[in-house]
């Protein structure tokens, strides 16, 4: 004879009384107002008290999963690494694309409608420099292409002051 099993009737899933975990995490980060981001413990505590969820492993794992999915989507960020604090990512406002014809025409019309103010020309002052007198050059020797220049020797450095130890040693010898 075969096994007799009881079939359980499935209940229709009731929607949860709380919003999505991602939304709850976002609300928690905004409400905590921490500059460097909020810790997981602080977020969990806020969610448990605000939305009256049970503190069990299912809630903890759902929270962790929601955080990682949010990071993948670009909603949250880990500024101090994956085990650190959690911040909201600021979305940059979408730049509007310029339409070709309309904005250009409007700008031209605005520029043409403004009355132009005539500017007075600036006076430029020209300084006259006195004429330089011709100076006589001292006769220099020209060096032939193949010849080399002789190096000028620098005078030797003056000896530095000797300490008392060296002078006493020299005096005894």
What does this molecule look like?
The protein is mostly helical. 36% of the residues lie in helices and 2% in strands. It has 5 helices and 2 strands; from the N terminus they run αααββαα. It has helices at 21-32, 40-51, 57-73, 101-113, 164-172; strands at residues 76-77, 87-88. Strands 1-2 form a two-stranded antiparallel ribbon. The radius of gyration is 43 Å and the shape is elongated. Belongs to the histone H1/H5 family. Residues 1-11, 119-143, 151-164 have a biased composition (Basic residues).
What's this model, at a glance?
With 173 residues, the protein is mainly alpha-helical. It has helices at residues 21-32, 40-51, 57-73, 101-113, 164-172, and strands spanning 76-77, 87-88.
Draw up the topology in text.
Blueprint: H1 21-32, H2 40-51, H3 57-73, E1 76-77, E2 87-88, H4 101-113, H5 164-172
Antiparallel strand pairs: 1-2
Which features does this protein show?
single chain; 173 residues; mainly alpha; two-stranded antiparallel ribbon; 5 helices; 2% strand; elongated; nucleus; chromosome
Label the overall shape. elongated
- Unreliable spans are none
From the N-terminal CA to the C-terminal CA, the straight-line distance is 125 Å
Radius of gyration, whole Å: 43 Å
Count every helix, treating DSSP H or I runs of 4 or more residues as helices.
5
Strands side by side in the biggest sheet: 1-2
Counting DSSP E segments of at least 2 residues, the number of strands comes to 2
Which structural class do the helices and strands define?
A: mainly alpha
How would you characterize the largest beta sheet? 2 strands, antiparallel
- Helix share, percent: 25-40%
Give the averaged pLDDT, no decimals. Answer: 76
Strand content bin: under 5%
Order of helices and strands: HHHEEHH
